[in-house]
Design goal:
heterotrimer; A alpha/beta; B alpha/beta; C alpha/beta; B: alpha/beta; six-stranded mixed beta sheet; five-stranded antiparallel beta sheet; 10 helices; 11 strands; globular; disordered N terminus; C: alpha/beta; four-stranded mixed beta sheet; 13 helices
Chain lengths: ~375, ~250, ~375
């Protein structure tokens, strides 16, 4: 234990003396959280919409005013002959063309047609924006029908109509950052602890101090613990910073138990620190360590469900996500943070992380060699 | 082997110790025996195999074949037990530049498992012995190279080892500092420590009790410095070295 | 001649370290396959739970509308709506629908029946999608029940420009090329120069009569080559494996790629003058190139949704301009007529970085 204590002391002395490094570890995460929390915004608002009304009827003007009063659209006034060029230059997201005869068709029982031209480069955005446009048409249609039905009360009393009353839990405004901030916090934790552990050991390899340590009688376990514990503590500091930024700056309510989060972080850190150690056993230079760790990190980030919900992935890849420790930790962190999930709610995720962490750490200790063959 | 075990004074001995890297033989059938209190010098040009030999003795590198013991422990099977009995200092200055002088000593002492009282005392003694009290709280990076070497030696001695391995420890140090350094080594030997050095400075070899001249992975000649000079009729180790190596090349 | 010597030396460095070379070439391949397959922003098969308090043929018919939609998958039936929250906390479903007990009986009533939709809002984007889809399904249901003559049908015919198949890949892959080019070139140059600084070999080169410009150009050219290969590899795999559209002219893309590389390498050089250790260079390069290129360039997250101050920052990032170029060429088939100002700005940013780097370099020498 005393050997490990000396390691912790030494690493902290080195980290706290390196002002550049300290800035990287403490200030940069705050900036990143704030910038990324604002940047990663999938809320679709301010869709730039151009409307071309060829019908000039009361009906079409009603539609137009509905689009104008919607919060989702910024109406762009444009000349239809320049539409194609404007869309090419990315100035317009969607245009709605109401053809001549729209009102006539609507009243007569034949289908009234409207045309939609969508910039679909980002298919997700295009889908959501198209949904908004359809929503406006839908509510317009409903009011139109109701007006027709008002005139026929006997029919009105026979039909069935359903309305949706919706409630959104945990995040009533459906802000993207509610999910991204806890996600970024876990991401930062992963990147910092994996990289710092790998680079730190490889650096000692490069400058020769590792060899000096290898001629001492410390055990592999002591070495691995001595190297990991300081960075685990740093990891907790990062997590605390991230929580503080999320709660104080972004005002995201913390619904769950801090203790459970701290416990989950311990399981998770075993995985990332173990990964860092493993990288250090194969890399000879810091550059190699960075590149090797990078593969692990990119895999973890993409497969974690941070950028894209896991259920959107092809089935085969969904199975692959079970190999990603981040998958569990992001779920756990979001769950505890936003939903107040309990130990029992998250038992499978926690069990997976415990197994993963223990295996990774054990593998790192096993792979680590005090002598070369 | 038997003869060696009977002589309890032998602290380092090897038997046909060999190390290959792929096809290249770095150390070829090394046989040495070093007694307690001796200063044993490995002489040879760069790449002669000295460092490889020392790394095998310290348990940093596994031998390809052959056997060896250090402080009575087998270098393959009991490498970890050897490590608490030896001190090691390599050609590369390997203390932490971003720690203070006393912090380096504290860390290494701590790694060797000294308790806090022993640690305090040993730091004090080491600083005194190495004449480093006045730079105790200085950053190691700011020390001149000669002082850094002394500090590294001090760190290697923190746990009071029986055998000290010095691999090209005086490389790049000025002559005065080297002189100082060797005075300390002699002092250690006088107190019963066994010192194992590798060097390519011939004048340093004069300070050794016993030398072994390595050339192209093999030991060409070894024995007491005085005996070898008489045997070959050479006046200095430098002449001796040249003589032996030229003979070895022509053979 | 001297320039050739430096270029040759740098190439030797790169090819000797076969591991790094391997990693550098494998990186884009790895990234594109992972992104291409895994990143799909189009929600489908969203798992939902249902509490059918009515258990009538009418309620079952209504629920069936959800179950049959390609957007939803009913995976849980519960007896009480309060059970939804438990399911949310365990991430088992994204939403819960409660059909009230009088659902069947209310047919023929004058007033609308309320069906409650409870959405797990932790992922705001998906929650929004769930709401949109659910409303559309209910609207469809309502229309079906209308008597003849009251449907007032409206057909909105959408035409999806630039990505008619609505594949995420068409959006992600070109962006990925921009990210990879930036990452490889800026990271590699800065780290390799700082390594020479650390080991002292840079001093060695600088005391020879080689001009500073020659040193820089010589160091950079091999990385232009490597990064260019990586970029082509990304686009090639994108087009061949992921069926990414290629509407425009190849030469427009190639020339613009070179200009983009110029700006990326200049940024790498600038970083190398700022950092004194490899660790610092890596950290700075990641902070200044990779993160902004991924997060702030419009690669995945629309710039229009960002706060104004961030929108201004996106205009300082080379990847933002190159993304518009590469998406324009690949998806829209645009050429220099529409894109020339992006090319000019990229060139300008590159030159600015380069001048700053040279200045820093000279200061250090003087």
């Amino acid at each position: 234990m005393s050997v490990i204590r000396h390691f912790v002391k030494k690493e902290f002395r080195q980290v706290f003396r390196d002002k550049q490094m300290l800035r990287m570890l403490l200030i940069v995460p705050i900036v990143q959280l704030i910038v990324l929390g604002n940047a990663i915004n999938l809320d679709v608002k301010h869709v730039r919409l151009a409307i071309f009304d060829h019908d000039h009827s009361e009906v079409s003007r009603d539609l137009l005013s509905r689009f104008r009063s919607s919060d989702y659209f910024d109406i762009i006034l444009a000349d239809q002959s320049k539409l194609s060029a404007l869309m090419d230059r990315g100035k317009i997201d969607i245009s709605v063309v109401i053809p001549e005869g729209f009102a006539r068709d609507l009243g007569s029982g034949s289908t009234a047609k409207a045309q939609l031209i969508v910039d679909a480069q980002n298919s997700n955005l295009a889908g959501i924006a198209t949904g908004y446009v359809n929503g406006v048409f839908g509510s317009f249609q409903e009011d139109f029908r109701n007006r027709m039905l008002e005139k026929n009360p006997d029919i009105k009393s026979k039909i069935h109509s359903v309305e949706v009353v919706s409630r959104v839990f945990y995040n009533p405004e459906m802000n993207t950052y509610f999910a991204t901030i806890p996600g970024i916090a876990v991401l930062l934790l992963t990147i910092i602890t994996t990289l710092i552990n790998a680079l730190n050991i490889v650096r000692e390899k490069e400058i020769g101090t590792l060899e000096q340590l290898m001629v001492t009688p410390i055990s592999k376990f002591q070495f691995v613990m001595g190297k990991s514990l300081p960075f685990a503590i740093l990891g907790y500091i990062e997590l605390a910073i991230a929580l503080a930024v999320g709660m104080l700056w972004f005002k995201i309510p913390f619904a769950g138990s801090f203790l459970l989060l701290a416990f989950s972080a311990a399981l998770f850190l075993m995985t990332t620190l173990g990964a860092g150690l493993l990288v250090s056993t194969v890399a000879q230079t810091q550059q190699q360590a960075l590149f090797t760790a990078w593969f692990f990190l990119v895999f973890c980030i993409i497969m974690s469900g941070f950028l894209t919900p896991i259920e959107n992935m092809p089935t085969a890849l969904q199975y692959l996500t079970y190999l990603d420790p981040l998958r569990y930790m992001i779920k756990v962190t979001r769950g505890i943070f936003l939903k107040g999930s309990t130990f029992f709610d998250l038992k499978y995720e926690l069990a997976a992380m415990a197994i993963y962490g223990t295996a990774m750490f054990a593998l790192a200790i096993f792979r680590f060699r005090k002598s070369t063959t | 082997m038997n003869a060696v075990i009977e002589d309890s004074n032998i602290v380092v001995e090897t038997h046909d110790l060999t190390r290959k890297f792929g096809k290249f033989v770095a150390v070829d059938k090394l046989n040495i025996a070093v007694k307690r209190g001796e200063i044993f010098g490995f002489l040879g040009a760069n790449g002669a195999g000295k460092t490889t030999a020392i790394r095998m003795l310290c348990g940093l590198l596994e031998p390809t074949s052959g056997t060896g013991t250090v402080a009575g422990f087998d270098i393959v099977k009991q490498a970890e037990r050897i490590k608490s009995r030896i001190g090691y200092m390599s050609q590369k200055f390997s203390l932490y530049n971003d720690l203070k002088v006393e912090e380096n000593l504290e860390f290494y002492g701590g790694v060797y498992g000294l308790d806090s009282r022993a640690l305090k005392q040993h730091i004090h003694e080491t600083l005194e012995r190495m004449n480093l009290q006045h730079v105790r709280t200085k950053m190691t990076a700011e020390l001149p190279l000669g002082w850094k070497q002394k500090l590294a030696l001090g760190a290697a001695l923190m746990h009071n080892p029986d055998i000290i391995f010095l691999d090209e420890a005086t490389g790049g140090v000025d002559p005065v500092a080297r002189r100082d350094f060797w005075d300390m080594i002699h002092d250690l030997a006088a107190h019963g420590k066994t010192i194992f050095v590798t060097t390519h400075y011939m004048d340093e070899a004069e300070y050794c009790h016993k030398i072994s001249i390595m050339h192209q992975s093999r030991v060409l000649i070894q024995g007491k410095v005085g005996d070898l000079k008489v045997q070959t009729g050479m006046k200095t180790v430098e002449e001796l070295f040249k003589h032996v190596v030229t003979q070895g090349d022509s053979a | 001649m001297r320039l050739r010597a430096i270029i040759l030396k740098e190439f030797l460095h790169i090819f000797r370290d076969s591991r790094t070379l391997f990693l550098v070439l494998l990186m884009p391949v790895f990234m594109i396959f992972l992104y291409g397959w895994a990143v799909n922003l189009d929600a489908k098969n969203i798992q939902i739970a249902v509490a059918d308090l009515d258990q009538s043929p009418a309620s079952r018919y209504f629920i069936d509308k959800f179950a049959q939609s390609k957007y939803f998958q009913v995976t849980q039936y519960v007896t009480q709506p309060d059970e939804f929250e438990d399911l949310f906390r365990r991430y088992e479903v994204r939403a819960g629908i409660t059909v009230p007990a009088d659902f069947g009986k209310s047919i023929g009533n004058e007033f609308a029946t309320s069906v409650q939709l409870i959405v797990d809002g932790y992922d705001g984007n998906t929650a929004q999608t769930v709401l949109n889809y659910a409303r559309a399904i209910v609207a469809q249901y309502n229309t079906e029940l209308l008597p003849q003559g009251f449907e007032a049908p409206i057909e909105v015919i959408p035409r999806f420009l630039y990505n008619p198949s609505l594949e995420s890949g068409n959006f992600i892959v070109p962006g990925l090329a921009a990210v990879i080019l930036m990452m490889i070139s800026a990271l590699l140059t800065s780290v390799s120069i700082v390594r020479e600084k650390e080991t002292g070999t840079l001093e060695q080169i600088l005391v020879t009569p080689v001009h500073v410009i020659e040193t820089i150009v010589g160091k950079v050219i091999p990385y232009v080559f490597l990064a260019f290969m990586d970029g082509m590899l990304t686009i090639g795999i994108g087009v061949l494996v992921f069926d990414v559209q290629f509407e425009g002219a190849a030469w427009v893309l190639l020339t613009n790629t070179l200009v983009y590389l110029y700006s990326a390498l200049a940024l790498g050089l600038l970083i190398s003058t700022l950092a004194s250790t490899q660790q610092a260079a890596m950290a700075t390069a990641l902070m200044l190139t990779l993160l902004p290129s991924i997060m702030l360039s419009g690669f995945m997250f629309p710039i229009a949704g960002m706060p104004l101050i961030l929108q201004v920052i996106t205009r300082l990032i080379p990847a933002t301009y190159f993304l518009e170029i590469i998406r324009g060429v690949l998806l829209k088939g645009t050429g220099y007529a529409e894109l020339y100002h992006n090319t000019l700005i990229l060139f300008g940013i590159g030159t600015l970085f380069l001048l700053l780097a040279i200045r820093k370099f000279k200061v250090r020498l003087g």
